[in-house]
């Protein structure tokens, strides 16, 4: 039996809490030897018991991707102690996506297009490396600084998968956030890269109006699930009157129930909406080129929907063996009940749980 790694002097000093989730807390940290600042994701082994594969998977994915793309979070180091696992990643001080939007003085359709272009480019890098993220949502889009929207990075790769290109329709686990799940994920029909494009379609819709496409007229989550499975959504004129037809076309070509009918990431990057706001020859005063500030109405609807409550409610769904009672033939209500049964509870650890915890070096995994 191999001996356990020995305790080493603490290499990082942790500071204020940056964020908290179901099984982890993210803290600001300084590397003692260099003074460099990082974020450290502190993961409770107790709360992750039975789901350790998610963290090992996240490490594997980030090791493959780190430093390869400016808009994908970098894993700089990883350690463990008897109680916790630590992932040392980029320090992102610019906040989450919707916090940043709500704090801005203005937000135009062109800003939304810029954000989606960055996300598509990063997801394209993932797909080119045979990785499906499977949890694209606002909470996993962070800004490194407050200076520029271009500082956006995709984070949290716990649900991502490295898959053989020839088996890209073989992923069967139900995972993700309900409002952003593609139909084939909910129905467990097998899924691949196209699920990320569906999530980007939902994200684009949300950016432009402040609510998600499938819960607009849904009284229950079963109604929302039914809307997703049937691809039922609309562009209500009172909320979408100031948004371009090209944006609506872009969204419609991503929110298609059949994954084979959805745009690929490279097709989405080539869509005219992606080029609409960076063409120097375009007449910015043309009615076809929206220059309306969307922030007041988006912010108001985010407040009405309770974005803070939404963030807590939109917990990651992890399918377990107990979820097997649902099948591709299950009703929307059965599927919604199955999803709700496995929402991970919010974890808010005390700050002293992690302070002063000596770090144990975790040997590189072979």
UniProtKB/TrEMBL annotation:
Domain (Protein kinase): residue spans on this chain: 12-274
Nucleotide-binding is among the record's keywords: yes
InterPro entries with a match to the protein in the record: Kinase-like_dom_sf (IPR011009), Prot_kinase_dom (IPR000719), Protein_kinase_ATP_BS (IPR017441), Ser/Thr_kinase_AS (IPR008271)
Stated name of the protein: Protein kinase domain-containing protein
Pfam name, any one: Pkinase
Record-stated family: Belongs to the protein kinase superfamily.
SUPFAM superfamilies: Protein kinase-like (PK-like)
């Amino acid at each position: 039996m191999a001996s356990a790694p020995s305790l080493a002097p603490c290499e990082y000093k942790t500071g204020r809490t940056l964020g908290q989730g179901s099984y982890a807390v993210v803290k600001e940290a300084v590397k003692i030897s260099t003074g460099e600042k990082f974020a450290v994701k502190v993961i409770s082994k107790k709360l992750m018991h039975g789901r350790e594969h998610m963290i090992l998977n996240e490490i594997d994915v980030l090791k493959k991707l780190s430093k390869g793309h400016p808009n994908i979070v970098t894993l700089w180091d990883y350690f463990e102690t008897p109680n916790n696992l630590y992932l040392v990643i980029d320090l992102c001080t610019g906040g989450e996506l919707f916090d940043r939007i709500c704090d801005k003085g203005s937000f135009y359709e062109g800003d939304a297009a810029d954000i989606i272009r960055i996300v598509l480019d990063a997801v394209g890098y993932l797909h080119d490396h045979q990785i499906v993220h499977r949890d694209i949502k606002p909470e996993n889009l962070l800004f490194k600084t407050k200076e520029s929207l271009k500082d956006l990075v995709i984070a949290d790769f716990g649900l991502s998968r490295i898959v053989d290109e020839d088996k890209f329709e073989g992923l069967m686990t139900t995972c993700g956030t309900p409002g952003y799940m593609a139909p084939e994920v909910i129905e467990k029909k097998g899924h691949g890269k196209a699920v990320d494009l569906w999530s980007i379609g939902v994200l684009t819709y949300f950016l432009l109006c402040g609510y998600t496409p499938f819960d607009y007229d849904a009284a229950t989550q079963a109604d929302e699930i039914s809307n997703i499975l049937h691809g039922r959504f609309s562009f209500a004129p009172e909320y979408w009157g100031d948004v371009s037809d090209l944006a609506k076309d872009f969204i419609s070509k991503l929110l298609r129930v059949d994954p084979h009918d959805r745009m690929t990431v490279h097709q989405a990057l080539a869509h005219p909406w992606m080029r609409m706001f960076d063409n120097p020859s375009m007449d910015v005063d043309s009615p076809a080129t929206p220059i309306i500030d969307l922030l007041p109405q988006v912010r108001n609807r985010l407040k009405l929907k309770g974005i803070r409550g939404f963030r807590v409610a939109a917990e990651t769904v992890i399918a377990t063996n107990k979820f097997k009672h649902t099948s591709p033939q299950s009703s929307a209500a059965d599927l919604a009940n199955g999803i709700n049964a496995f929402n991970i509870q919010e974890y808010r650890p005390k700050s002293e749980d992690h302070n002063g915890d000596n770090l144990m070096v975790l040997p590189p995994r072979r």
